[in-house]
Amino acid sequence: MSKIIVKSFWDHRDITHLTLEKCQDDIEMAGELLKKIFHPDPSKTNYPISGNKLLIFGNGGSASDSQHIAAEFTNRFEVNRKPLPAIALTTDTSALTAISNDFKFNMIFSKQIEALGKEGDVAIGISTSGTSPNVIRGLSIAKRMNIKTILLTSHKIKSSLFDVTIKVPLKNTARIQEMHILIGHILCSIVDDLYKDENKSN
Predict the structure, then answer these.
(1) Which domain holds residue 14?
(2) Predicted pLDDT of residue 196
(3) What single DSSP character describes residue 171?
(4) Number of structural domains, the chain?
(5) Total Cβ atoms within 10 A of residue 103
(6) Can you say whether residue 90 is alpha, beta or left, with left for phi > 0 and alpha for psi between -120 and 50 degrees?
(7) How far apart are CA 112 and CA 94, in angstroms?
(8) Neighbouring C-beta atoms of residue 60, cutoff 10 Å
(9) What's the Cα-to-Cα distance from 2 to each of 5, 12, 160, rounded to whole Å?
(10) Beta strand 164-168 with 122-126: parallel, antiparallel or unpaired?
């Protein structure tokens, strides 16, 4: 048992370094997209949010990650700042089952994006394999609607169809998911950093 525990921690350390090396530039680009919707004028401290929002989605563990990250924005992460508009498209069971039943499972995210999204929003799709049809379709529809698109995935996908593709260079699903949630937290920190001065003045 101890060998499993130690190996898991060492593997996590090693892949964290590798992901930083391979993905830092793409994470920064994703952070810039989120900064634009949540803080449109960096020169102002007392500002309204832009009116745009984050839409985030995935399947299975990635669905849980989507809900986790959305909650960090709508509640708080590390800074007591105003709530920010983020919606996980994985939580409405009526919508998910109705779309799956009446149309196809691969449309569960795209139809919600058509209903809820608008130009200027940001959509994050999370797919460990990079081949989830409903995630790829959702991001493709978002792109057509002039919604900025970010795909969190693994090394397997070669697509450059989206504005930012963050490809964790691994094969192990569990380790990929660990990096995805770390990247999600980093994006939250990037947005929180915009509110630190405002938080001090309150």
Answers:
(1) 2-201
(2) 79
(3) S
(4) 1
(5) 12
(6) alpha
(7) 12
(8) 13
(9) 5, 15, 41
(10) unpaired
Task: Tell me what pLDDT residue 26 has.
Answer: 96
Rounded average pLDDT per 10-residue block, the chain, 202 residues: 90 90 96 88 60 95 97 94 94 97 97 97 94 96 97 79 92 92 97 78 52
Query: How much is the pLDDT for 5?
Result: 92
Which CATH number characterizes residue 115's domain?
A: 3.40.50.10490
Neighbours of 25 (CB within 10 A): 10
CB-count burial class (<10 Å; 0-12, 13-18, 19+) for 150: buried
Residue type, 123: A
DSSP-derived 3-state class of residue 196: helix
CA neighbor of 134 nearest in space, from 62, 185, 83: 62
Residues 6+ apart with CB under 8 A from 29: 163, 164
Q: Which two tokens stand for residue 83?
A: 């709530």
Instruction: Name the residue type at position 124.
Output: I
Q: What pLDDT is stored for residue 194 in this prediction?
A: 87
